[in-house]
Specification:
This protein is about 50% helix and about 15% strand. The protein has 18 helices and 15 strands. Bound molecules: adenosine-5'-triphosphate and magnesium ion.
Length: about 475
């Protein structure tokens, strides 16, 4: 609206009320950024007949930069400038009277009275802007304060580890804390919780990262061979020892040695391991001369070592020597929030780019399951599902029968035909409803059934929420 028509008489208050309403609406719209809202304010004032509108807020991108001197003065002394040549500049103040910027306009040269009208209007607009800027800053300060407070937690997990469940953040903290030192670490946790990955992460975060990482499973070898596996042997040390051989300790020289399933180590070898740890020396089987080795030892176990000590199967002195810095890995059922992250990670690892996502019902089943085999079981499950999927999506029926508990009430037995059928139906209905944006008539048509039957089935499966609101 041309300003000339609105400046005098009764027209003006109406036009002012209108422009103020529009400006308030733009500034209060939480959906858009402050920059966009300020852009709208400029546009509304231009519609009102003011040209050369300039909003200058230090710290925000400025609009134009003419008349800088005048706005600088206003910014400094907080008093409006009204010049008869048709320039009005007012300070942008918050309700707490803090000056955060300036608002200036050019108007056609006009009588002093008209310019004072403009000044009053702009003062109101400037206060609205001031409050919007303050709210914007509060939000930002909150967000950056929060980010700062959380900074140690949102740091990327060490090594190849995936997951940000609270219990795992503590594990990451311990890894970072212990990695730089040569301290012996004892990793505890059920099978498949990621002990090997944690050992690798410690190695890679340590000064030995360039050195070798060697892993040996103490439970996998017959008793006679374990000692030679760990410490090596000389030629002729025992029947069959045709040549000399380095053991894992020597292979790990300058690096890290993971002794997995330490609880399975035969008592005779436990003594020798203790000596190696205490003296930094090993003896090859059949060799009297000690060899110095520079190895950081990490031990892992999923067995309760304390019970083994009671039984006399594990030496207490070795236990104390190993248990200097224990790290406990929580079972997957105690960090359910990580299931989706891990599952997506394994889709990336095993899906060969062919499998893109996991359907919501499949994720629901995964989240409900208790995962006795922990992350390893989840990985195997996703790998298998990737092979079964033929359209790039992992669906509920690609998951093994043990996961198919069907409903949350627990009335259906795991793996029963009934449960699997329900999951299959859920999957089909969710997909169909998604494809048509929740339009029940369209979904019924696509599934070659009637809206009545579809509504009944959706209700039965607790899926009625998928129906778009306007259709209800
Ligand atoms: N946090 C994790 N992020 C990504 N992958 C993981 C994680 N935890 C475990 N895995 C994967 O799960 C599998 C099992 O992990 P790992 O071998 O480290 O378990 P473990 O605790 O050593 O088990 P076990 O006691 O049976 O030896 C591996 O393939 C590993 O890569
Ligand atoms: Mg392991």
């Amino acid at each position: 609206m041309p300003r000339a028509m609105t400046t005098a008489g009764r027209e003006r208050p109406h036009a002012e009320a209108r422009v103020l309403y529009r400006i308030t609406k733009a500034l209060l719209d939480g959906q858009q950024t402050l920059e966009r809202a300020l852009g709208d304010v400029v546009a509304h004032l231009a519609d009102f007949g003011m040209s050369g509108v300039e909003i200058a807020v230090p710290g925000l991108p400025l609009t134009k930069k003419r008349r800088r001197g005048a706005s600088q003065r206003v910014l400094e002394d907080g008093r409006a400038v009204v010049s008869p040549s048709g320039f009005v500049c007012v300070p942008i103040k918050t309700l707490r009277r803090e000056i955060v910027g300036t608002l200036s306009v050019e108007v056609p040269a006009a009588p002093e009275d008209d310019l004072q009208w403009d000044r009053r209007l702009l003062t109101v607009v400037a206060t609205l802007i001031g409050e919007a800027v303050r709210a914007h800053r509060d939000r930002h300060e909150d967000a950056s304060a929060r980010a700062q407070a959380e900074a140690p937690e949102i740091a990327a997990p060490p090594g190849e580890l995936v997951g940000n469940a609270h219990a795992m953040l503590e594990v990451y903290r311990l890894i970072r804390q212990v990695a730089p030192h040569d301290t012996t670490v004892l990793l505890r946790g059920e099978s498949g919780t990621g002990k090997e990955l944690v050992a690798q992460a410690i190695h890679h975060a340590s000064a030995r990262a360039e050195g070798p990482f060697v892993s040996v499973n103490c439970g996998a070898l017959p008793e006679q061979l374990v000692e030679s596996e760990l410490f090596g042997h000389v030629k002729g040390a025992f029947t069959g020892a045709v040549g000399g051989r380095r053991g894992r300790f020597e292979m790990a020289n300058g690096g890290t040695l993971l002794l997995d399933e330490i609880g399975e180590l035969p008592p005779a070898v436990q003594v020798k391991l203790l000596r190696a740890l205490q003296q930094g020396e090993i003896h090859r089987v059949g060799d009297e001369a000690p060899k110095r080795v520079d190895v950081r030892v990490i031990a892992a176990t999923n067995a309760p070592l304390e019970a083994a000590i009671e039984r006399g199967a594990f030496r207490a002195d070795l236990y104390y020597r190993l248990n200097i810095f224990p790290i406990y890995l929580p079972p997957l059922r105690e960090r359910k929030t990580d299931i989706t992250l891990l599952a997506d990670h394994f889709v990336g690892k095993h899906g060969r780019g062919r499998v893109k996502r996991i359907s919501t019902p499949a994720i629901e089943l995964m989240t409900a399951y208790h995962w006795p085999g922990n992350v390893r079981e989840l990985e195997n499950c996703v790998e298998r599902a990737c092979l079964l999927s033929d359209d790039g999506v992992i669906r509920a029926h690609h998951l093994p029968p043990t996961l198919q508990t069907g409903d949350s009430s627990g009335t259906t037995k795991a793996g029963s035909l009934d449960a699997m059928m329900r999951n299959f139906e859920r999957e089909i209905l969710i997909e169909a409803m998604k494809n048509v944006g929740g339009n029940m008539t369209a979904a019924a048509k696509a599934l070659d059934t009637t809206p009545r039957i579809l509504a009944y089935r959706l209700n039965q499966l607790g899926l009625y929420d998928l129906v778009a609101r306007r259709r209800r």
